[in-house]
Amino acid sequence: MGVIVQKFGGSSVAGVERIQKVADRVAATRSSGKDVVVVVSAMGDTTDELLALARRVTENPPRRELDMLLTAGERISMALLSMALNARGVPAVSFTGSQSGIITNDAHANARIVEVRPYRVQDELARGRVVIVAGYQGVSYKKEVTTLGRGGSDTTAVALAAALDAEACEIYSDVDGVYSADPRVVPDARRIAELSYEEMQELAESGAKVLNAQAVEFAKERGIALYARATRGGGGETVVRKSPPRAPGRVVGVASETGLVRLSTEAGGSVAALLDLLDEREVGGKQILFEESPVGAGRASLVLSLENLHDFPRLKEELAARFGADVRLTEGVGAVSAIGTGINARFLNVRRVLAILGDAGTRVMGLSTSSFRISVLIDEARVADAVLRLHAGLVADRG
């Protein structure tokens, strides 16, 4: 039988009633003659609640202990779903990330999968069982429990789909696919029927929450089609796969982020030392710009996300103590990105982005591009308005 991997996000398993509905969906897939592997996230806001609990104990919880704590959320979901399936007469067994063979590097709180050894999963599928795997987690080569960062359950699902040579990987959440903008911000945002891996990865990196960027990277490497669907059923879906190229310059969506911080320096000697400090604190950067200054000292600008900073107050203190005025820190920064294949084949789209924001009186702090993306840094208070205006001018106006 072919293997189907289904991933259900936190909102899909947020309570007993929803878990029962997920069990019905999984049972229906199993009855169609498919082997089924299910990856689950923690129930609802469990991860945030556990993180808040840790912060009540200490403002600076060790990352290793955070991983031990936060992985409990997915274990609750997997066990309850297994119970629900067995109660329906569908044989099921639940596994943690380590039991299912998810091997990672040793970067606590933001690990990357380096290998999947799904032997126990394959054994249980051969016995006719549905296998339920705790997403977001694995085990390092040092035998330490690790987590994969926000959205890591998507990565778990895609990695397992690749290792099991699955027919499809289905990602279920509370929305029926990927939209051209966040529908909560842009009411007339439209669902995108099909996206290339590159477009989806840029959307995810730029703040779209439906799919995780690392998961899309995995899918691209292995040629796995991803289906983003709503748990409630009905509606449509978004398929992410290798796609024929669109007309160059077509903008398919607008994504945004808030909670960003910009570090900047014009002291050439500070750049390497600054990067050393961020590596010591395991702080990943979202964007780095370096250029030689007229006096040869060099200037640099780095963008960080507070979502990945576990002790920002301490980092600020260290920056001030080590660099003083040589490193400037700007908080309250947001980013808005327009995404599309060949978006920068000409400068037309860059000019349109700058014109739209300029007409609105929005100050652009920085701009970066790739073959699929135009991103601008702005005050985070202006992000929602910028998304509305850019969607209207770049997506809606062009059909």
Structural features, described:
With 399 residues, the protein is of the alpha/beta class. The chain has two domains: 3-174, Acetylglutamate kinase-like (Carbamate kinase); 253-398, VC0802-like (2-Layer Sandwich). 35% of the residues lie in helices and 26% in strands. The strands form three sheets. An eight-stranded mixed sheet has the order 3-6-2-1-9-11-12-10, sandwiched between helices. Strands 14-15-13-16-18-17 form a six-stranded antiparallel sheet. Strands 5-4-7-8 form a four-stranded mixed sheet. Helix 1 (16-31) packs across helix 4 and helix 7 packs antiparallel against helix 8. The protein is globular, with a radius of gyration of 22 Å.
Topology:
Layout: E1 3-8, H1 16-31, E2 35-40, H2 46-57, H3 63-70, H4 72-87, E3 92-95, E4 102-104, E5 113-116, H5 119-126, E6 130-134, E7 137-140, E8 145-147, H6 152-163, E9 168-173, E10 194-195, H7 197-205, H8 213-222, E11 226-230, E12 238-240, E13 253-265, H9 268-280, E14 285-291, E15 299-305, H10 312-323, E16 327-339, H11 348-359, E17 366-369, E18 373-379, H12 383-395
Parallel strand pairs: 1-2, 1-9, 2-6, 3-6, 4-7, 9-11, 10-12
Antiparallel strand pairs: 4-5, 7-8, 11-12, 13-15, 13-16, 14-15, 16-18, 17-18
Helix pairs in contact: 1-4, 6-8, 7-8, 11-12
What would you report as the Rg, rounded to the nearest angstrom?
22 Å
- The CATH topology label of the largest domain is Carbamate kinase
> Domains counted in the coordinates: how many?
2
Give the mean pLDDT: 91
Main β sheet profile: 8 strands, mixed
CATH superfamily of the largest domain: Acetylglutamate kinase-like
Strand order of the largest sheet: 3-6-2-1-9-11-12-10
* Termini gap: 42 Å
The fraction of residues assigned to DSSP E strands is 25-35%
Q: What share of residues is helical?
A: 25-40%
Encode the helix/strand succession as letters: EHEHHHEEEHEEEHEEHHEEEHEEHEHEEH
Sum up the overall morphology in one term: globular
Low-confidence stretches: none
- At the first level of CATH, what is the class of the largest domain? Alpha Beta
Category by helix and strand content: alpha/beta
Number of strands: 18
Query: What's the architecture of the largest domain in CATH terms?
Result: 3-Layer(aba) Sandwich
Note the total helix count. Answer: 12
